[in-house]
Give the backbone structure.
Amino acid sequence: VSNNRVWSLLMVVGLSTAASGVSIAAAVGSVSGVVTDSSGQPVRGAIVKATQGMKTVARYTGSDGRYRLPALPGDRLSISVDAFGFAVATKTATGGTANFKLSDQMDLSRLNSSELRYLIPEDNIPQLRVYYECGNCHGLEVPVSRSGMPVEAWRGFLPHMSGYRWGVNFFSDQHSALVAPWVAELFGPDGTMGPNAHPDYSKVKHTPIRDAALKATITEYTIPSRGAQPHSIRVDTATDMVWFSDYDSQSNNIYQFNPKSESFREYKIPLRNAAAHTGAVLSDGSYLVGLDSQEKTPIKLALAKPDGTLQTVEWAGKPRGSRVVARDPSNQDVVWVVAGPETWRMNLKTNERRAYQNPKPKAFPAGSFAGRFALPGDEPNSAGYDLTVDSKGTPWVSQLGQAIIFSINPETGETKMYNQPQMVSARGVVADASDNIWFADYYGHKLGMLDTKTGAVTMYLPPNRYASPYGVSVDKKRGFIWYADTMPNNVTRFNLKNHEFVEYPLPTANADARFVGIDAQGRAWYGGFFNSQLGVVDPGDTAGDQLATSR
Ligand code: HEC
């Protein structure tokens, strides 16, 4: 199936481009200014963003309240300023200076999901279940925006919720009936986060931005298909091309984004509700992605090629779809795939394939999320979530709620499970340059490291108490781990040398970013799963590395 629909950002904003691809249209010069509160004091760490057509550029204010935005094409920019405890301020500018005076505002609709989390008592298991269950797919900002429905309305709504977008409903009638009263305790007419609530905002702790983040520039592009849900971002470090899956069943796409021309190329997947999840860039520059589809079909993976064509990869007799593809760094023809209770090894050159059975614990491990929140009848299972392959070709697979990471011996198929009581969950996993496995403890709000030689686990605490690391990626050259930090709406960088975290708050609310990709310049690309943005965080402190790379 070939598809060559290409969107160019420059086309969309109505500019003409010369044959060389250089814009010849007018640009607004850079805009700068100062952000203060109502008494004239500078506001530090406010997000100032300028939007022009499909492109948004954002920076943070320094401790003097000052910001400076880079020049953007077009002749008018809409600028908005967003800071904790203040109302959003907006202005239209044509360049030069734009100062903002913010007015105080504390409102549930202005809090991100990790801030809302402070309003749930630590011992209220049903309400915590609602927080984490809903947070499996989106933050509490989403139900807060629809608060006020009584129990019966929630009970009727939940069984259809995901079906609207994914063609698949994840909440059974029975489960909806169980959780609807707890949902209504939070988001009902008289709920603690309902329309009549007077929350105690003194409980809500805002995590201040680190000084190291203030040098960053964040750019976002609105993905052309309406309601796009970019799930996982992968960057081809040889060509700079950015690949991502669009989970939304209305578009059912894979996209390639070219950062130089700022244009998107769309690949239609010829399978209903394909649920394209997480892929890997292959040595020839194509992108192989797992399809988490529940359809009865032999189609398991999609392969998007740089020439604009797409092929499907089939494996008949396998009951369900697949999710994550990871390359074997010790053999460029081999990929490993997470596929429910199995993990697959596929040699793309010889077409040899082998399916390995995942291990299953006898009981939920102590301290694990699955153990703590188990409902009657819940049993341990063998489903894998994410996967990474170490330098010797050994795959490491995570089991999300069971907080297990297991390895597979590719020859014997023997598996080995790793868990420690301080692990609450294991979502994204990635092997670093020393073959340690870094993992996202999504439900435990931490970043973890498994020493594969000793089996010891070390947990690292991010500045945000309710951080929720999702997908993790490594920048081996510079020694950083990056992760999408879903509930606080951040992308976060962790320094492998001094263990310092730098959280970068994202410019558009409710991103629900999932898997990040790192480019050759050390920038982190993320997808706004619930706001349809493709974004990139340029930390602004790796310029020396950039020079070194281009020499
Ligand atoms: C399996 C994934 C999943 C889970 C878990 C989930 N949601 Fe959703 N939810 C979705 C999707 C997908 C949408 C978007 C639907 C759409 O755009 O039509 C959504 C949308 C919503 C909306 C907004 C509808 C609108 O029109 O604005 C509300 C409210 C909501 N969810 C509440 C909840 C609550 C409460 C929970 C937890 C009890 C929850 N969700 C758990 C997937 C999920």
About this structure: The chain has a mean pLDDT of 93. Residues 130, 133-134, 136-138, 142-143, 145-146, 161-162, 164-166, 170, 179, 183 surround heme C (CB under 6 Å). The radius of gyration is 23 Å.
